[in-house]
Specification:
The protein is of the alpha+beta class. The protein has 2 domains: 3-176, no CATH class; 189-209 and 258-294 and 312-399, Nucleotidyltransferase, domain 5, CATH 3.30.420. The chain has helices at 13-43, 51-56, 58-64, 74-97, 213-216, 218-229, 240-274, 285-288, 309-319, 322-336, 380-399; strands spanning 3-10, 114-117, 124-126, 136-139, 143-148, 156-165, 168-176, 189-194, 198-202, 207-209, 277-282, 295-296, 304-305, 339-344, 368-370, 377-379. The strands form 4 sheets. The chain has a 7-stranded antiparallel beta sheet. Strands 10-9-8-11-14 form a 5-stranded mixed beta sheet. It has a two-stranded antiparallel ribbon with strand order 12-13. Strand 9 (198-202) and strand 10 form a beta hairpin. It is globular. The relative contact order is 0.10.
């Protein structure tokens, strides 16, 4: 299996400054390569520059600017150029598919936060000492940095990434050949239905409450945003007070992300520990969170009709993190030897468990289900979870 391990770095003040310089120089390399591609396409008969062309120029770039570019790992700079090449490949793919192109943009100093070292031992080396407080990672141009290794690393380290999140630094190890750690079988199967009122409901009737971390921090976050908005545009990113206000907003969002991820990990671990098979709905969460298209008012040219954007924003906040939870659940299931079965979500909450009737009117409210044909009544999320489990059983029978 392939797994990623993320550990907190504890750099000294001098190492922190060096890490910031590393990000700035790689950001400058990214923007310079992007500018070269733009100029070549515009001014030389629409000629395209490839990754190979720019990678072959790296030696000259490092020799021309040894203070900023020559001090860093050659392979990490190649990875930055590959990052730009992937952005262009994705741009052309969207153009061919007729989607919104999204031309690659220049990166600001606060939006380039990751440097990748493609191979352990080439500009970056992971200290493979046993799990403990003395673990370190060596970065070319920075030195040996202490790592807070809270769990052992399994498998072979392939790629090492250094990432900045707010005022913290992390190292991310991508490992292959990670051995599985199967859990003992339980013989239990379960279907889950994700909802708005409850985070999820199991086919056994158990409800997992929706913690709503964003709403819990809404007052504090709104106050921090209002304070940040008081700074005039001409002084933004220039004063110490503005930077402190921006950091406060970023810290609040980071705290919300950490709490949500912790909740997802614990919920997924509980499901994996207690069940051999977990079935869930296959939902297009990206499509569900898509903003509604504007509606033009035919009677008043230039005006728009109400399109439910405010209500859609509320739904987006309620379903935020569903895709992350399913990814965590799938990864934990693979490591523990469990089976996760996605099934079609159509009419799972509108199908009667008693007579099998399907009708839109069966879903009376968000929480109440009552069949219009036979009168069967139950919790709507419980009905949905049970139908998900039944569909998963049919799918497994078809496979067998």
């Amino acid at each position: 299996m392939i797994r990623a391990y993320k550990f907190l770095l504890r750099p000294t003040a001098r190492q922190t400054a060096a890490l910031g310089e590393m990000l700035r120089d790689h950001c400058s390399l990214y923007n310079g390569a992007l500018q070269e591609r733009r100029d070549a396409y515009r001014h030389t008969s629409r000629t395209s520059i490839t990754y190979g062309d720019q990678s072959s120029q790296l030696k000259d770039v490092r020799a021309f600017d040894p203070e900023r570019q020559g001090r860093w790992s050659f392979s990490s700079q190649q990875a930055t150029l590959r990052r730009l090449d992937k952005a262009f490949a994705a741009f052309f793919r969207r153009v061919r598919a007729g989607q919104t192109p999204g031309y690659p943009r220049f990166k600001g100093a606060g939006h380039f936060n990751t440097v990748v070292f493609p191979r352990d031992g080439d500009g970056c080396r992971w200290d493979s000492t046993p799990h403990g407080p003395q673990t370190r990672v060596r970065l070319q141009g920075v030195g040996h940095i202490r790592v807070h290794q809270h769990r052992p690393v399994r498998g072979r380290v392939k790629t090492i990434s250094v990432k900045r999140e707010g005022d913290r630094w992390y190292v991310v190890l991508a490992c292959d050949q990670v051995p599985a750690q199967p859990l003992p079988g339980t013989g239990a199967v379960v279907g889950i239905d994700r909802g708005v009122t409850h985070f999820l409901t199991t086919s056994g009737g158990e409800h997992v409450a929706n913690p709503r971390f964003l709403e819990a921090a809404a007052v504090e976050l709104a106050a921090a945003r209002r304070h940040l908005a008081t700074f005039p545009k001409r002084t933004r990113q220039r004063t110490k007070r503005h930077r402190a206000a921006a950091r406060k907003v970023a810290k609040l969002h980071a705290r919300i992300r950490c709490r949500r991820a912790d909740f997802h990990h614990k919920t997924a671990r509980a499901l994996i520990t207690d069940h051999d098979v977990i079935a869930h709905e296959r939902l297009n969460t990206a499509g569900m969170a898509k903003s509604p298209a504007p509606k033009a008012d035919p009677e008043q040219p230039g005006s728009l009709l109400p399109n439910g954007a405010a209500a859609k924003a509320g739904l987006n906040r309620s379903i935020f993190g569903w895709a992350q939870f399913l990814g965590i659940l799938a990864n934990k299931a693979e490591s523990a030897g469990r089976l996760v079965v996605p099934v079609h979500a159509r009419n799972t909450s509108r199908t009667c468990l008693s007579c099998g009737g399907v009708a839109k009117e069966n879903r009376v409210t968000q929480e109440r289900f009552q069949c219009t044909a036979c009168g069967f009544a139950a919790n709507a999320d419980h009905v949905g979870a049970t139908n998900v489990l039944n569909r998963a059983g049919l799918a497994l029978c078809d496979v067998d």
